Amino acid sequence: MTDLLEVNGVTKRFGGLTAVKNASFTLKKGEFTGILGPNGAGKTTLFNILTGFMQPTTGTIHFNGELVRELAPYKVVNRGMARTFQLTRPFVGMNLLENVLVACMSPRASEDKDKEARASYLLAQVGLGGRDKEPVETLPYGDLRRLEIARALATRPDLLLLDEPFAGLGSSEIEQLAQLIRRLHREENLTILLIEHKLREFMALVSRVIAMNFGEIIAVGPPEEIVKNEKVIEAYIGKTEEAHASA
Ligand SMILES: Nc1ncnc2c1ncn2[C@@H]1O[C@H](COP(=O)(O)OP(=O)(O)OP(=O)(O)O)[C@@H](O)[C@H]1O
């Protein structure tokens, strides 16, 4: 497998706070990787940097061999990196089909000549088939998450970044969405980077974990190793009383 994404020494400072500290990692084509870490660990900041919503203070990002640092978010999308957000942002006043159609105008989707057919197909693919004309305003949370994924897929990405797709969903919705994500990874030749706090679902989906704490990458490995990693356990539950006593 070749490297699709190469992150090298990325740091992001907000005044005196270092949200991401010297992060380096690679993603290989076809990998399903997750970023794990407690609140405030720097996961979303890292996503924002990768996708052009923020510039790193230092460090470089290569995607498909090209330097993507300094590129505006739409240019990053045009190079094949699409994302979803913790808070969904549909185009209000438009129906489901129109919401996906906008993304079908992406340069990478130029081969998709019949845009309406493509948008309709994507809605069906994410489980929203037959609902093209529904207004987006009435959509429940779980369906909004599906719509976001359809819009991201419309840009024909090589890498899909999912920021907490299960937040706010009930257990049956989570299971359905997890199945969808798993199927997309398998059938659409996608490389996926996932942030998710729902640990059981997270660990079942990913094959590699990048664990962060206080902006730093503290461990990288398969889920079965990460759950046993001392630094990761400490980051989640804090030092044991014994360790505190001897410190
Ligand atoms: N625009 C900003 N300005 C100042 N500080 C920020 C900004 N964005 C994030 N931070 C800070 O950077 C740190 C990392 O935040 P970030 O949102 O990346 O963490 P996270 O791991 O995604 O957390 P969560 O799991 O709660 O979403 C936090 O201390 C946060 O308050």
Automatic annotation (TrEMBL):
> CDD domains of this UniProt entry?
ABC_Mj1267_LivG_branched
GO BP, one example?
A: L-valine import across plasma membrane
InterPro entries, per the entry: AAA+_ATPase (IPR003593), ABC_AA/LPS_Transport (IPR051120), ABC_transporter-like_ATP-bd (IPR003439), BCA_ABC_TP_C (IPR032823), P-loop_NTPase (IPR027417)
Indicate the segments forming the ABC transporter domain, all copies.
Answer: 5-239
Q: Which UniProt keywords apply?
A: ATP-binding, Nucleotide-binding, Transport
Q: Name one GO cellular component term.
A: plasma membrane
Originating species: Tardiphaga robiniae
Task: Please name the GO terms that the record assigns under molecular function.
Answer: ATP binding; ATP hydrolysis activity; L-isoleucine transmembrane transporter activity; L-phenylalanine transmembrane transporter activity; L-valine transmembrane transporter activity
Extract the Gene3D superfamilies matched here.
P-loop containing nucleotide triphosphate hydrolases (3.40.50.300)
SMART domains, from UniProt? Answer: AAA (SM00382)
Q: Give a short account of what the protein does.
A: Involved in beta-(1-->2)glucan export. Transmembrane domains (TMD) form a pore in the inner membrane and the ATP-binding domain (NBD) is responsible for energy generation.
> What name is this protein filed under?
ABC transporter ATP-binding protein
